[in-house]
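Incident review: delayed structure delivery

Summary: a single-chain prediction request sat in the queue longer than the usual turnaround. Root cause was a stuck worker, restarted by the on-call engineer. No data loss occurred. The affected request and its eventual output are reproduced below so the record is complete for anyone auditing the incident later.

Affected input:
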Amino acid sequence: MAFYRNLRAKHRGSCVELGAGSGRLAGALGADGLTVGLEASPAMLGLWPRRNRGLAGRVRGLAQEMPFLDGSLDMVLLTYNFLHCMPDSRERRRVLRESARVLPPGGRLVLEACPAFALRPAERPVERYSYEEGGVSLRLVEAVSRNPLARTITFHMEYSGSAVPPSLGRLDLTLTLLSAGEVLNEVSAEGFVISAVWGDYDLSPWSCGSSPRLLVLAERK
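Output delivered after worker restart:
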């Protein structure tokens, strides 16, 4: 949150977060300029807390086909594991191409990824946390599996407790593995110049093999 709050303080203007989900970053991104959360799922848009709905506009749409005019935004954000949810490189390139379209020359693209997923070993089920207070309980047991041929990693999450809806229970999240080189090459190929590459939210330098995250700041040519 602090990273995006500081980023927004430096770059006011108009901004869109792609795959905004339940509005988790609206509090950090809401600024003097126009802020929009683009999300394909109406269910996720419906989960936005009321306190965040006045901080950013909610727009339903696909990142591959943004409903914005050419050059109409100042900054595009691809946050958290957005890119890892797109196993097809052609779809990732479509998103980057659309990002270039809605930005003017000099407009900023900020994205993050996690090449460190490639280093994560498979794990048997283990309890991640167990919480209970005031009659409310929540427990998560998670396993991790890998598919080297498909270049994916899957987190198998088993939720239990009074806070878990009956329809939830088990959730499998499969993410595609991406290297830093792949991400940077795709960004450069779609009309951007890389301005900065960081290895974590504290703006530490990127280091292959030790940085927990990959954060990229690029400018449209």
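Verification: The longest helix spans residues 89-102.
Action items: add queue-age alerting; document worker restart procedure.
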